[in-house]
Every structure is written in structure tokens, then in C-alpha cells.
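C-alpha cells as discussed.
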């Protein structure tokens, strides 16, 4: 099951409340990156750990 996240505030042209799926997470030399896709899977976005913490929260 894919993890779902929602935007806390506007980010990169997406409005607050937009939902995303977490597709992948990776870590290289202590730097984490996350790959998210929009709910309709049409747009992919790669973000940093800092951006993930600042702009997104998990949905249950």
C-alpha cells in the first residue's frame, strides 16, 4: 500500500490540501530524497527531507 501525504501549504504550484503518493525514498551519504506523485499519478516530484517535513503531512 502506498503512503499518502497532503500539502500543509502551497508548494511548487500545488495548492494546500493536494494529495500525493510516496513512491520512493532514498538516502545517500545522509541526504534523504523522496519521490512523490500526484493523486492521479500524472506528475512526479523529487523533494528533500527538509521540504517533506515543512510542506507535507501523512494521511491515515
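Sequence:
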Amino acid at each position: 500500500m502506498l503512503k499518502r501525504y497532503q500539502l500543509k501549504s502551497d508548494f511548487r504550484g500545488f495548492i494546500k490540501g493536494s494529495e500525493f503518493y510516496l513512491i520512493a525514498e532514498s538516502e545517500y551519504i545522509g541526504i534523504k530524497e523522496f519521490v512523490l506523485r500526484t493523486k492521479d499519478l500524472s506528475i512526479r516530484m523529487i523533494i528533500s527531507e527538509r521540504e517533506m517535513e515543512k510542506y507535507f503531512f501523512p494521511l491515515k
